[in-house]
Amino acid sequence: MIFSIEKDKITDILNTVEKFVPNKTTIPILSGIKFTAKNNTLILTATDLDIGIETAVSADIIEEGSAVLPSKVFLEIMRKLPKGNIFFNKKEDKITVESGEIKLSLPCFEPYDFPEIIPEKSFPLLRISHEVFKKMVKQTIFATAEESLSRPVLTGELLEVKEGRFNIVALDGFRIAWRWEDVDAKDFSIIVPGKTLSEFSKIDLEDEDKDFELHYSDNRVIFKSKAKTITSRVLEGKFIDYREIVKVEPKVKVTSNTDELLESIERAYVFAKEGSKNNVVKLDIKKDVITVSSESEAGIFTENVKCKTSGEDLLVAFNAKFLIDALKSIEYPEISMDFGGEVNPMIIKPLNVENHINFLLPIRLRSEG
After folding, report:
1. Contact predicate 312/323, CB 8 Å
2. In this structure, are residues 140 and 179 in contact, taking their beta carbons and an 8 Å threshold?
3. In the list 99, 156, 197, 357, which could disulfide-bond 191, CB 3.0-4.6 Å?
4. Taking the chain (369 residues) in consecutive chunks of 10 residues, what is each chunk's mean pLDDT?
5. Gap between the Cα atoms of 300 and 185, Å rounded
6. How far is residue 222 from each of residues 135, 147, 163, measured CA to CA in Å?
């Protein structure tokens, strides 16, 4: 394998691929990045077996071949090389790298034991804009559960098409975040790890790759664009029937300015987080005003936020962090909130927008007196 490539080109692609190299592994070859040189293209592959990436970049290929380079030292030295072309030459179990007057030699693995991350056959599920998909993930992923929970299915997000609607849903037992878009695709339902969706959302596709395809094969999901392919295992299990859960009979309806309420709750959170682990913030709803309050050893906070209300007065408490996450996910200037009561759920969504829902369970307040 002999090829040359411009330094900035190789470091850009390495910065993406390195995120998929496991920090710790009992399989030495997985600590490396596979290089494949063919057809004037350099293909880089990395995986931890749960999630993997294959991405391609143009290069001057002199002799085709492949090798797996241990990533840690290689990545560090690549970043420190001067600008200009870098020349690579693999002979037996070593690869030499030349950049101007610099020459170095690195050990490498033979590629035969490196796992193939892209299945030979897969079934296309959906084609969608990468920007739209990233936004949908950003507006929901905060509601996934922590890895330590006993129900691993909740550490992922549900991706499904049902009756012409593409849904992305996350829930952790206390809240639900749900976004959808109308699509022309057949029904499917898979649960994808939150880590996979987070990494895919951070990746910039090439300018011509504004859309990508979602595929499925043998308990793996595949995200395909022109130059990059990411694969991941899917999570097995049954997702909760979120459609039924989010049906709330409102006792109180409120409309408010998104930023004004968010900023007030962020101020209340400064005090709330010094108290119990639930970060309790109270919302005292009366005619056309919400009094936001929190109390801890750090002090007491209260603020009145103007709004429009209908229904009865209500005093209800929530985890301030959960409220902040929900409000930050909304990109519209006004929100509507439907409160089911002091012990029943609340729905937050953009005003007059139907494809984005946040569901939150309240914190039960102790009876006074």
Report:
1. no
2. yes
3. 156
4. 94 92 91 95 95 95 94 89 95 92 92 92 94 96 83 94 97 96 96 93 72 93 92 93 93 98 97 88 98 93 97 96 98 97 96 97 76
5. 52
6. 19, 22, 22
